[in-house]
Amino acid sequence: MFPINKVKAAKGFVVILLSSGILLYFYTNNPSTSQSLFLRCPSNLIFGFNCPGCGTQRALHHLLHLEVIEALRYNALFILALPFIIYGVIIKIYNLIFDAKKTIRIPTKKFVWIGLLILVLLFGILRNIPIYPFNLLIP
User: Fold this and answer.
1) Per the omega criterion (within 30 degrees of 0), is the bond before 133 cis?
2) How far apart are the C-alpha atoms of 127 and 9, rounded to whole Å?
3) How large is the average pLDDT for residues 39-59?
4) CB of 93 within 8 A of CB of 10?
5) Does residue 75 lie within any of the structural domains?
6) Best CA proximity match to 54, nearest among 109, 133, 128, 106
7) How far apart are CA 82 and CA 68, in angstroms?
8) Is the per-residue pLDDT at 15 higher than 80?
9) Total structural domains in the chain?
10) Which UniProt keywords apply (predicted)?
11) Which domain holds residue 16?
12) 73 CB-near residues (< 8 Å, 6+ apart)
């Protein structure tokens, strides 16, 4: 086990506390209502297009309420990527608290990154086509 660095542990605690506060805000406030303080997507506001991230705030709100199908309806790409995001955050916090050097295994092959980029771009394009079945991707 790694020795705990008190300063880094305090930073890790602050990160956990802030993250918990943000998740609590998302749980208690629905981004779909006008009373919440959530920002609207700039690409949707300016250009009228749904970017690959559109609907993420609403998806997170519904996911915190265990409404998985509704969360998938708002942003399926975010929900599918969430386990990887959570894993990365946990490793970072662990490294911060325990002054460890655990690494996240990230593929280094160029074709993996190009494939992910194509997936995100394709998701962004397809969710703007107002024809069935693509209209199911519109948040």
Assistant:
1) yes
2) 42
3) 88
4) no
5) yes
6) 128
7) 12
8) yes
9) 1
10) Membrane, Transmembrane, Transmembrane helix
11) 6-105
12) 59, 136, 139
Answer yes or no: are the C-beta atoms of 128 and 49 closer than 8 Å.
yes
Phi, psi values for residue 112, rounded to 5°: -65, -45
Residue 133 lies inside a defined structural domain of this protein: no
Report the phi/psi class of residue 32: left, alpha or beta, with left for phi > 0 and alpha for psi in -120 to 50: alpha
Between CA 51 and CA 70 the distance in angstroms is 18
Which tokens belong to 97? 């608290």
Contact (CB, 8 A) for 63 and 43 = no
CA-based angle 78:79:85, to the nearest 5?
70
Helix (H) or strand (E) holding 33: none
Q: Which of 52, 51, 85, 79 is nearest to 66 (CA)?
A: 79
Q: What mean pLDDT comes out for the span 6-34? A: 85
pTM to 2 decimals?
Answer: 0.81
Q: Give the confidence band of 43 by pLDDT, cuts at 50, 70, 90.
A: confident
pLDDT digits (tens, 9 = 90+) for 66-79: 999 999 999 999 99
